[in-house]
Amino acid sequence: MPQFRISEAARLLGVSDDSVRRYIDQGRLPADRDASHRAVIDGVALAEFARENAHASPDPSAVSRSARNRFVGLVTSVVKDQVMAQVEIQCGPHRVVSLMSAEAASELQLEPGVLAVAIIKSTNVVVETPVAPLR
């Protein structure tokens, strides 16, 4: 299951590191410790928190594209059958839903809590995951 450090969670939520620490201290956002004893937040819990407390997030991608409508967020739901997948991403205050092949969703390892970027061009939505972690 994906986990995010406080600074990563802060960037995704569009708030300061201190705000995330306050959310943890207030019990609004659950946190654990990783092998290095740093505070980490479960991706699923962070995705749910992001959905409930939506703010815009910076784009972690280091690529240039002609599509200007890029929405960074956390996957909140993936429903797959044999052929197709419905992927829901909470991108700040925006909920983006993409229909794609089940094969593509599996290759991207899309599951709740995973960081993703929804790229919207015309009537199509392309979903990608960053190559490098958000650090």
What does this structure look like?
It is a single chain. The protein is an alpha+beta fold. The chain is 24% helix and 36% strand. The protein has helices spanning 6-13, 17-25, 43-52, 102-107, and strands at residues 3-5, 32-33, 39-42, 69-80, 84-91, 94-101, 115-121, 124-128. It has a 5-stranded antiparallel sheet with strand order 6-5-4-7-8. The chain has a 3-stranded antiparallel sheet with strand order 1-3-2. 35% of the residues are buried. The mean pLDDT is 87.
Key traits:
five-stranded antiparallel β-sheet; 8 strands; 36% strand; alpha+beta; three-stranded antiparallel β-sheet; 135 residues; 4 helices
Beta-strand segment tally:
8
Enumerate the strands of the largest sheet in spatial order, edge to edge or round the barrel. 6-5-4-7-8
CATH level-two architecture of the largest domain:
Beta Barrel
- Give the topology string: H per helix, E per strand: EHHEEHEEEHEE
CATH topology name of the largest domain, in short, is OB fold (Dihydrolipoamide Acetyltransferase, E2P)
Helical percent range?
10-25%
How many discrete structural domains? 2
Inertia-based shape: globular
CATH superfamily of the largest domain: RNA polymerase II/Efflux pump adaptor protein, barrel-sandwich hybrid domain
> What is the typical, i.e. mean, pLDDT?
87
CATH class wording of the largest domain: Mainly Beta
How would you describe the oligomerization state of the chains in this entry? single chain
What is the straight-line distance between the termini? 17 Å
The secondary structure category is alpha+beta
Individual helix count: 4
